[in-house]
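Deliverable D4.2, example record:
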Amino acid sequence: MATYLLTRLLRAFLTIVLVMTFAFVVLRLSGDPAQIMLGPDAPQDAIDAFRARWGLDDPLWKQYLAYLQQLLNGDFGVSMRDGSPALALVMERVPATLALTLPALMLKLCIGIPAGVYAALHRESIADRGVILLSIFGFTIPSFVLGLVLVLIFAVTLDWLPSGGQDTWRHAILPIATLSIGGIGILARFSRSAMIEVLGQPYIRTAMAKGLPWRDVVWKHALPNAAVPIVTLVGFMVGALIAGAVVVESIFSWPGVGRLIVVSVSNRDLAVVQCLLLVIAASMVVANLLVDLAYGLLDPRLRAARPAH
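Output generated by the structure prediction step:
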């Protein structure tokens, strides 16, 4: 188990370094922040002064080494727009994003998994067909289309809910629904498939042949084994939630991390974008690391694994 954990930690560290390096290089090759910040009509001497002020006139390798030194000193840079610390700008947006993504994730888990398990235990029933239809809906409809449809129905036509903003809890209903509906269908379908596969295994038939109650067969034998692939899928869903937040926050004018990404990228605010990507990458790495640990606890083969000599 120790080797398993160390391997995952090393992989997590390398992932963050690769994301950091990729973001640094791509941002500097995708456009000149001086031209965007100062405008197309800015004089050349102002552009040169801006580049010198932010070290953009140095070779790329020198800029990268300076950036690494900043990070080692705990300095994530400052915004080119107003001089505010990049990390502070990002962290003040994190609670708003968590207010959407955490409830959306809980809805996916609390509705998707039980629905999938129920459908697997009642195959060919109306509930089973409903789960299949919901999963197809979740796979096919993009989040921005779903968000616009929900706004059209519940905000414009019925006037039940606000279409944007963050003033009250009612403003969060449509964004959370947009983030969760598709994932509920996907998780339900995946849970259904995993449960059906486990129920067809020989050890399930053996447990039933021993006369164990059906409830014990499901809860003690089927569900723990079906949970292994489901937990893996949940790790991927964390990344999907972060990506979906970029779109959903833009649709509903929600002042979170996703909306800050859009604004910062369009302005080429390098320090803020780099800090955003580092925070997002670290969040996804931690989430997947926790999933790997849960996977190791659920799968006894991983706990028993030892490095070869």
